[in-house]
Structures are given as structure tokens and as C-alpha cells.
Write a structure and sequence with these properties.
Two copies of one chain form a homodimer. Chain A is of the alpha+beta class. Chain A has two domains: 123 residues, SH3 type barrels, CATH 2.30.30.230; 299 residues, Fumarylacetoacetase-like, C-terminal domain (Fumarylacetoacetate hydrolase, domain 2), CATH 3.90.850. In chain A, the strands form seven sheets. In chain A, strands 6, 7, 8, 13, 14, 16, 17 and 22 form an eight-stranded mixed sheet that branches. Chain A has a five-stranded antiparallel sheet with strand order 4-3-2-1-5. A five-stranded mixed sheet of chain A has the order 9-26-25-20-21. In chain A, strand 23 and strand 24 form a beta hairpin. In chain A, helix 2 packs across helix 4. Chain A starts with 32 loop residues before the first strand and ends in a 5-residue tail after the last strand. At the A-B interface, strand 7, strand 9, strand 10 and helix 8 of A face strand 7, strand 9, strand 10 and helix 8 of B. Chains A, B: Its cofactor is Mg(2+); Ca(2+). Chains A, B: Keywords: Calcium, Hydrolase, Magnesium, Metal-binding, Phenylalanine catabolism, Tyrosine catabolism. Chains A, B: Pfam families: FAA_hydrolase, FAA_hydrolase_N. Chains A, B: It comes from Paraburkholderia tuberum.
């Protein structure tokens, strides 16, 4: 497993000036991968790496022969859209690309003129999904979220007996995952008011977001084999932001006994930039369980979990109403969560999902589940923030909210900070609720 | 919508003699599509059409210029593996291919020598999945199955209030779908005996099959739009056999609150031949609800449903143990189901799944759910046949079964019969249970 190396050095600076700005998500220590093109013109989508407010066009750098021989073949995969072939490479091949790009963008690079010709301003770009996502599984890793939501759906029985024994998860819909910046219509569906005898077919009235992290799989496994927890992280390509939009009124009526279906399948948003696991290495942190909880079964445990099983990622969710946008008001922060508050670690999700022989494929997406923590300021969906819609809150514009209104934009951001290391960020994941189509 | 036409004429015969055998699944009236290659050698998989005990190699027929101009472009898509591009064509383009192939294989065809050079014996072939399946949704269309199973999982509350209002479904795992003939290892997972305080991690002890029909989507819809029930069938490419292998002990422990996950994701079997909706046209039959049940909501109803909303497909499940195989004993029939016994029609599943704006894609798979009917002889999984393992049954070999043992082969077959029409069949869907890997 790759540990902290020179590409993480806090003293490392880029000749791309915006990358040295303390506020940027994309210093030279980050180097996340994505798929982009210039918004104007008829370009094809292609692979890029974010640096400051620019994008390194990997194919353009290859065309100028800027990669060393040992990184060239892997860089060709990083230049193609979608990035599945790159994700499928062994971690050391991808690490060679990271080292090469870190050098090309560093102050030490003698070829900065040629490299600068390969930069595209992020302001001129549009994005596509970084991977062809063939399989999406969504988990329920936060005990706080499961407790808060469980209390609303099953007041007498919020946490079911299996929760502490296995990472509860379900299959999500892959076809309706879209990249940040694409908006969606409020879904229509069957809703059943507890006071009505019959359901109705109408636009969702309890539309919600769920702030999650998305784990993108690198190398997969063969059907019929399991990924050992000690190797699980080596199957991770990187992490991005995921908004698992949810129609709570559709959900509460449809979800028994086979789980959420149309309540979630209408749209899922993903951030365009994937922060690689190698970039996240310095922010590793320990992982533990509350005293008295069952010890994880052997296939869910390795000693490494205790010291570096989680990653100290903070996830913030913000909301900007249409009125706030019109008035130029900045988005209002609704919550900040910590990934280490999750009850189940990323490697445990992978060990669990493959324990029955299921094959993961490069580009598969695993959602963490809503990342709420024990602190009320970390409730990462409106269902929890308003306790099922019972307690509205007020936006800085004076508008009141229980659930999302048409025109609301939800923005997710995330970052890692640690003494002695540069802050790195995830960019943003943003989408706006459009009015429902006519039923 | 295509109705019965000359390609269905019972008097139509093929110069391929085996296609005129009354017992064949593949008379000239059927013409199902699949993906095959010769098992020996290093051929690429390619598109084919079954006729009697032969396969028409569509690409070989194109190379001999045997298709009329109006069918040529569509036939090129039917020659490529997987068949997604062909599935995505408008139904009338695919209908032109069917007409052309029906003529080429008919007794009237003057080019039978050239066409015969394009045939590959099914005995020499191996198959791949007919489509790249990016999304798999599985439904719960049989009220009898839901009642029988619901009684075991929730004795006091077998049928939940939503069942008669919407087709309950969930997302399945797409990556572990395999074509008939591929075997799988018994899954390992967390099992919780009701009498034990804690779960264990062990090979599944209650391994089951589920006999279903699989609907493969032809043309998809745009994200954010719904497919109207009156157009729903025009989005269907065809129907195949689906065995939704299920680990009942994993399922009962894991499934709350988010539904089945590892209990199903380890393996799913699909038959190699897709019977097109056009071939199924003569076997259309009416669809009705029991008296007193709620009327379907408007988006679930069109007058056509009452007269031709279902298709009279019979689905048989057979079991052959390792001992029976060794002794040359024929597989034992366990059940025969009727598709019209389903509570929800195929068009209703499509209207439901897209009602919230979810996009279906060409090659997407929708499972009917286990096709049990009210008759005990139509219980289409062991959980129902043995009432949760309480009532073992005896095979002709004298062996006893509650759930599946290692070495058991489960075989599904299906067919349509109607006076005045030829019987057509679906071929078979077969797989054998291999021992679990070591935990």
C-alpha cells in the first residue's frame, strides 16, 4: 500500500499560481482525475487532472511527449474518457502517472512552457461522469443517520438487529447518475398520507438530499472470489462527492419489503473530480467502535483499521434558494460531517459486498450512505435536520424550509486538513431542483 | 404495435428440417436472437438467430448479401455482440429483419444453399449474454409468491398495504448476471439462526432458485421522462428465462430495512435466447384483477390490458441432482407456472419504473419476480415448495430436498401454445451449484 511520499510534501509548489492559493481545492498535492471538454465548440470529452483553477489535458501532454516512458501507457488510459481503463490499472501504474504529473506541474519542471500549453481553465470547461458506472451500491454506514431516520420510519425499532453486524446496503440505479451541474425535475410518484385511505399519484412533497461520499472502484475481482479486507483499499481508485437525492414520501410508501426503489432512482449527482486514494493518504485516521458493540467478524477486521481505517474528510452541505440566487446571496451552510463518524469503513464495505462472491468492476460506485454524525450540526439530510418535516428552519433570506422547494440548489463540498500537510478539496457537487413535469 | 402477421402462420415451414419437428422450441415462427460462437477454436462472439437445432449466423448471411436492402442496416446490428445496438432500433426496423430471416429460412427461399452455409449447429455452439446489461430491476409481480413468502418472513402481515397499489421492485446486481450453462459457487455470508444470539459467517444452508421471466428493454427513454403505459410494450425487445438464485438465510438476516442485497447478488442466470415480443404476439391474453382489489391508477391502465395485457407463457422448473446425472436420470419437474397469473403486467412494470423519470436503456433487464400461481403445483421456488424448509420432498432418485445441495442442476424451460398457432419455446436456462469456497 502506498504511504505518504514526495507528492504530498507541503513544501511542494506549482508554477501554476492558483494552485498555491491556500483556498484552492486543487494544490499540487491533490491532482484529482476527471473528464472534461471546453464548453464551447465541439470537442470530445477527455481525461484531465485539476490543478488550481486549471485542468491539465493529459492527452495534450502525451502529444507533446511530456511523460516519462514508465508512465506513458498509464497516462494514455488517463487521457481517455471515461476513465474506466485507467481505474482498472494496478495502483503502482497510476502512482507513476501521479509522480510524473506532480513533477510536470512543480516549480522544478524545466518544461513549464510546453506544459502550460496543455492547460484549460476550469472556467471554460464542462464535465461528464468520470467513469462509466455499471454498478452502484449504496450503504447505510452512519449509525447516527440510521438512528435518526429509523426513529421516523420505525419509532419503536430504529436500529435493527443486523446493523452492528454487517454494513447494510442496497443496489442503486446506475443509469440516472449524472455529473454535478446537471439539474433534475422533481419526481412524481405514489404518495400515501398516513391519514388517507388511499395513495395518490402526485409530485413529491418531501424532496430531500443526502450528503454522501462515493467510492469509485479501481481494479475489480472475479465473480466467485472475495476481496480480503487487508487488500480492500488497493481496489479503490478514489473518492468523490455523491448526492443521493431522495423522495421521502415515495420512499415511506414503497420501501417495504424490498427497499428503496423509485424514491432514489430518479437522479443521483456526482462531483466531476475523483480524489485518488493516494492523494488522501496523509489524512488517514483510526477507526473504532463504541464500547460494548459487537467486535467485527474476522472478515471485517484487520489491525490496520484501528490506526488508518478511515480518512479525515469533512463534508459540507449548502443550500441556495432561487430567491437567494436572484439576490446574489451566498449559499447557506446546513451541515458539516466527518467521514470518521461512519460506523462502517470503506474497506469493510468492499469486504462485505464481495464476501458472497459478487464481482466489483472498475468504475463501480459504492456510496457511503448519508454521513450524519452524532452532533446535530452534522445531520446530512433534511429528514434529519427537520425531524421528518416537523421543525422547519429559516434560510438567511427569511424563507422557511422543511423539504426542498423548486429552484433550490444543493451544493456539497469536502476537504481534508492536517497539520504539516496541505489542505486538499473535492471541488463541488451541485444540482438544482426543477419543477415536476405534468403527471 | 405489431399484430400477428405472415411470420406467425402455422402453415409456414422451414427447409431446416429440425425446425418443423413439433418438439422444437425454435420453429420458423419463433426466431429468437442470441449471441454465440463455435465452442472450439478462437471465434468472436456474434449475433445469431435460432432455427430448429441450428443457429443462423447473421453476419455470415450479410457477407453473402442475403438480406434485402430495407433490412440490411438493422441486420448488421443483429450480427454484432452484444445486441444492444439492435435492441435500440425502432421496432419496425427489427420487424424487417424478422421478415427477411423468416423468408430466408422458409421453404419458399430459392437461396437455401447459400443460407445453409450460414448455419452453425447449436450442438457446436457456446453462448454469451445477449446484451450488455447495465441495469437490472427485479419485481415482485406474483401475488401468490408474495403471499407465500410474506407468510414465512412476516406471519402476521404477509401482504403489505402497498402491494396492490404499485409493482413492488428493487434494483438487482447487474455484474453477476451470467448466461445459462455457467455454474456458480454456493455463496458464503452472514446467517443468523433465530435460536442463536449471534450471526455466523458460513456457507449458505438455504440456497434456492426463483423461476422468473426476464424482460429485455429495446428502445429506452430520456432521463426525466416517463413511458406511458400505452407505449410501454413498444419499449420491450423480448423475453427470456431468468433464475434469480437466492440465499434465504442470508436474505432473512440482511434484508431489513433496505431490501435483499448479498442474498441475490452472487449470481443470476439468463437463458441465451431472447424471444422477441413480435414472436410472442399470437399468445397475448387478457389481464384482470381479482374482484374487490383496488382499480389500477390511471398511469397503470389502458383498455388494451384487459384484452392483451399478458402473454400465455408457461414456465417449468426442473431439478437434476448429481446422483441423478450420474445415473442418467432425467431431470424432475418441480413446478409449472403461468405468466398470466402475475398480478402486475409487463407494461405496468415499465410504466411504474419510469413514472419518476428513471431512464431505461437498451438491454436493461426487468425481472418479473418469482412466477408462482395460486395452484401449489406452480410454486416457483423451494422456499414456497417446502414451506420454508419445513416439508422436504423426495426426488425420483430417492434423495430428499428442502433447499439445494451441491451438485444440483436447476433447469428452467418455457413455451407458448395456442390453437391455430405453432408452439414456440424459450430454450433453457441451466446452472449447477458448486461447493462453496473456503471461508
Amino acid at each position: 500500500m502506498t504511504r505518504s511520499n514526495h507528492t504530498h510534501d507541503v513544501s511542494r509548489k506549482s508554477w501554476v499560481r492558483s494552485a498555491n492559493d491556500g483556498a484552492t481545492d486543487f494544490p499540487i498535492q491533490n491532482l484529482p482525475h476527471g473528464v472534461f471538454r471546453r464548453a464551447s465548440g465541439n470537442e470530445n470529452f477527455r481525461g484531465g487532472i485539476a490543478i488550481g483553477d486549471q485542468i491539465l489535458d493529459v492527452g495534450a501532454a502525451l502529444a507533446r511527449n511530456l511523460f516519462p516512458a514508465e508512465a506513458r501507457e498509464a497516462a494514455q488510459a488517463a487521457a481517455r474518457a471515461p476513465l474506466n481503463d485507467y481505474m482498472a490499472l494496478p495502483p503502482d501504474k497510476r502512482s507513476a502517472v501521479r509522480s510524473a504529473v506532480s513533477f510536470l506541474l512543480s516549480e522544478d519542471c524545466p518544461q513549464r512552457k510546453e506544459v502550460s500549453e496543455c492547460l484549460v481553465p476550469q472556467a471554460d470547461a464542462e464535465y461528464a461522469l468520470p467513469a462509466r458506472i455499471e454498478n452502484f451500491s449504496d450503504f447505510y454506514s452512519s449509525l447516527s443517520h440510521a438512528t435518526n431516520v429509523g426513529r421516523l420510519f420505525r419509532p419503536d425499532n430504529p436500529i435493527l438487529p443486523n446493523y452492528r453486524w454487517l454494513p447494510v446496503g442496497y443496489h442503486g440505479r446506475a443509469s440516472s447518475i449524472r455529473v454535478s451541474g446537471q439539474d433534475f425535475r422533481r419526481p412524481i410518484g405514489q404518495l400515501k398520507d398516513p391519514n388517507s385511505a388511499e395513495p395518490e399519484f402526485a409530485p413529491c412533497r418531501r424532496l430531500d438530499y443526502e450528503a454522501e461520499l462515493g467510492v469509485l472502484i479501481g481494479q475489480g475481482n472475479e465473480l466467485g472470489t472475495a476481496i480480503d479486507i487487508q487488500n480492500a483499499d488497493s481496489h479503490v481508485f478514489g473518492i468523490c462527492l455523491l448526492n443521493d437525492w431522495s423522495a421521502r414520501d415515495i420512499q415511506s410508501w414503497e420501501y417495504q419489503p424490498l427497499g428503496p426503489f423509485l424514491a432514489k432512482s430518479f437522479f443521483t449527482s456526482l462531483s466531476p473530480w475523483i480524489v485518488t486514494l493516494e492523494a488522501l493518504e496523509p489524512y488517514r485516521t483510526g477507526f473504532s467502535r463504541p464500547e460494548g458493540d459487537p467486535a467485527p467478524m474476522p472478515h471485517f477486521w484487520s489491525p490496520e483499521l484501528a490506526t488508518r481505517g478511515s480518512i479525515d474528510i469533512r463534508v459540507e452541505t449548502l443550500l441556495q434558494s432561487a430567491q437567494m440566487r436572484t439576490n446574489g446571496a451566498t449559499p447557506a451552510s446546513l451541515s458539516v460531517s466527518r467521514y470518521p463518524d461512519a460506523y462502517w469503513a470503506m474497506s469493510q464495505l468492499i469486504a462485505h459486498q464481495t464476501s458472497n462472491g459478487t464481482n466489483l468492476c472498475p468504475g463501480d460506485l459504492l456510496g457511503s450512505g448519508t454521513l450524519s454524525g452524532p452532533d446535530p450540526a452534522s445531520r446530512a439530510c433534511l429528514l434529519e435536520l427537520t425531524e421528518g418535516g416537523k421543525h422547519p428552519f429559516t434560510l438567511p433570506s427569511g424563507e422557511s424550509r422543511t423539504f426542498l422547494e423548486d429552484g433550490d440548489t444543493v451544493i456539497m463540498r469536502a476537504w481534508c486538513e492536517r497539520d504539516g500537510y496541505r489542505r486538499i478539496g473535492f471541488g463541488e457537487c451541485r444540482a438544482t431542483v426543477l419543477p415536476a413535469r405534468r403527471p
